Amino acid sequence: MTKYIKKRLIGLIVVLIGITFLSFIMSNISPVDPAEAFMRRNAQTATEEQIENLREEMGLNLPIHTQYLRWLTNAMQGDFGKSLVSNKPVMEEILSKFPATLTIVGMALIIIVVLTIIIGVLCASHKDSLFDNLTKVVTILGVSIPNFWLGFMLLFLFAVSFKLVPVVGYGSIKNAILPSITLAIATSSSSIRLLRSNMLENQNKDFVTYAKARGIPKKKIIWKHIFKNAVPPMITLFGQTIGYMIAGTAIVESVFSWPGIGSYAVNAIFARDLPVINAYVLIMAFIFVICNLLADILNAALNPQMLRESGDL
Amino acid sequence: MLGKIIKNKQAVIGLIMIIIVLIAAVLAPVIAPNDPMKVNITKKFQNNSSEYPLGTDQLGRCVFSRLVYGARYSLGIVIPILLVVALLSIILGTSAAYVGGKFDRIFILISDMVMAFPPLVIVLALVGSLGQGILNLAFAMIFSVWVWYAKVVRSYVLIEKNKDYVTAAIIAGSTDKDIIIKHIVPNILPSLIVFFSTGVAGMILMISGFSFLGLGIEAGTPEWGAMLSGAKQYIYSRPYMIAYPGICILFTAAGFNLFGEALRDIISP
Amino acid sequence: MSKKILEVENLRINVLDGTPLVKGVSFRVCKGRVLGIIGESGSGKTMTCKAIMQLLSKKNFDISGKIEFKNRNMLDMKEKEINKIIGKDISMIMQNPMTAFNPMFKIGNQIIETLMTHSNITKKDAYDIGVKELEKMNLDRAHEIMNSYPYSLSGGMLQRIMIAISLMLTPSVIIADEATTALDVKTQSLILSEFERIRDNDIGLIVVSHDFGVIARIADDVIVMKDGEIIENGTVYDIFDNTKDDYTKELLSARLLRKEVS
Description:
Radius of gyration of chain C: 19 Å
Order of helices and strands of chain C: EEEHEEHEHHHHHEHEHEEHH
Shape of chain C: globular
Oligomer: heterotrimer
Distance between the termini of chain C: 38 Å
Largest interface: A-B, 51 and 45 residues
Number of strands of chain A: 0
Largest sheet of chain C: 6 strands, mixed
Strand order of the largest sheet of chain C: 6-7-8-3-9-10
Largest sheet of chain A: none
CATH topology of chain C: Rossmann fold
CATH architecture of chain C: 3-Layer(aba) Sandwich
Number of helices of chain C: 11
Distance between the termini of chain A: 7 Å
Number of domains of chain C: 1
Number of domains of chain A: 2
Structural class of chain A: mainly alpha
CATH class of chain C: Alpha Beta
Number of helices of chain A: 13
Strand content of chain A: under 5%
Helix content of chain A: over 70%
Radius of gyration of chain A: 24 Å
């Protein structure tokens, strides 16, 4: 197990170096000169000399690899420079936006897990029933629905028509309900189907037949033998999903005017606020990679056979 | 194969939905009763009428005509992107799997790095630094997803490559080009079609999402996501203006998802 | 004639669309005797066993006839009553020991689970019983086995664990469905001697196999199945020395032929 973790951590370092490379490249292929953009925004009449001074200060005249190393050293200390718009440290701003995003992602995750387990298990244990067929239709719609539109429809239904929740706003849990549901629908749909098909696959396995032949009660067979063996692929999916959702909030947050990291990034894109975009990309990739790694390690701990099959034990 | 598709209800429904959207896209000028771009402020927010089947929007443009033309934009953007991604991923995925060795290792290294980014983040980053606009968006989309597709192609080819008939073809003296084009590609094609068909749905959603944010297509264009974005301030007074384009996106994406999944059931029961 | 424990009468199994799999099979299992069921794959022998074990879902199969155990037809019983019998009074040894255990749980867990389902004992007692039963099967280091995952044990070991599980609740009938097929010859022989021990315990044993060698070694009574029907039955001497049926002769000669070749 520790050997497996060590191996994964070494792989992680390689990927992390790659991430910093790619992030740096992606935010430096911009045709916009950040120094010029900054001066134009903050001083009405910027002289060529002022711009040149700023360029010097920002290190834009240095060779590209020196720029990268400088950026990397600073980034590793949590210093991503200052926002071109607000002139405040990027890291500070991003950290202040995280709680809002984590609130809806966390709530969405709870919704997803609960819906997936209840509906997925019911569908698998009542295969081809009316409920199962209905779920099939609903989940196909669920993965096909544009989430920003779903957000508006929920807003219209629950906030405007029924007045059950506040329209927009930020602060209480009530405000977070609609954005979380919006965020959860697509992922719930795909994970319900994955759990259902995993469980159906397990249902025909020898160990389930043998458990039945040992007289184990039906409920225990479903939960202990069929469900638990269907869980590892779900963990992999969830690991990926958490990263996706933290990034995917950009659209949902903009529908609900939710002051999280996603709408912050979208605003930065409109403003061509390169240091912010830069930091956003790097942090998102970092979170994504870590979530995937944690899911794999959790899987390995739950399922020792997997380690053996992949030759890591 | 074709017979099986016709027998599968889900596949037929999905296919019909796709065909409806395709027809709308191709025959938009014939179907649409009005010019989708024609502004007429005096006729804004009109109710349904024989002249305007679904009424008019805030600038007096025919909503129905705009929805019909919207099919052109959605498919017109997604299909070229898909073709490029398909070509790129088939070439790279196949060569990585077939050539193997160093080339494969470099491919894996690069793909691991690109796959460390959620696609949406790559698109946001590239659109952010390259600037908005449909071409930049298309480039960003291609760059963000090719690797996921190429990796799947690679795994399909790896499985196929080790099958007996390929070994037999190698022993019989077939050239690599022959083996790839005559044997491997035709055999993995059905699986790829499934994969790309569900991929189309995802891309349609992604593109409409970006137009909604205002990051791809110019505002005012009769594209579904952009229409929705333009209508969001009228959610209280004219909710149908938001409802219609969303239903169109849902219809198109559901069509591709239904078809793709039915196809998967047919190929691997 | 010794005492009968289980009687199958005119058992018919159809797929719901009407395709017959077992077409009216009757036999009885007696105390302290081994009933061998032999036939090719698709002959209905496994289906018959699964029907006795109540492993066939009514959603997919139409089952009629009688499976009489302790003077009651199991096909008429409610699920609750069935659960009290299956795994306790009638237990099973599966074909492939490598896949029969849940890979996510230790062997001990699955032994304790079985014991606690059928008797009112504490986890600790169940563990102790499990260790004792494993030791009875000549498995050394029983504690270690209890704490092992299935994948770290060999097929022969797992098969002996399965036999231990099948015996530990003192059943009246044990069904062994191709229980030696997946094993190498040496382990096969060991497992067969275990079966002989089971017979001496006054248990009715059903051994299903396609291998005449296995049947000849341990069966007292034999039935030969083909296409869902019994085409010949009798004592093991009847079948091997005075075969009447052409099909059985064919099976037998195929077996002899294979022996000569190998």
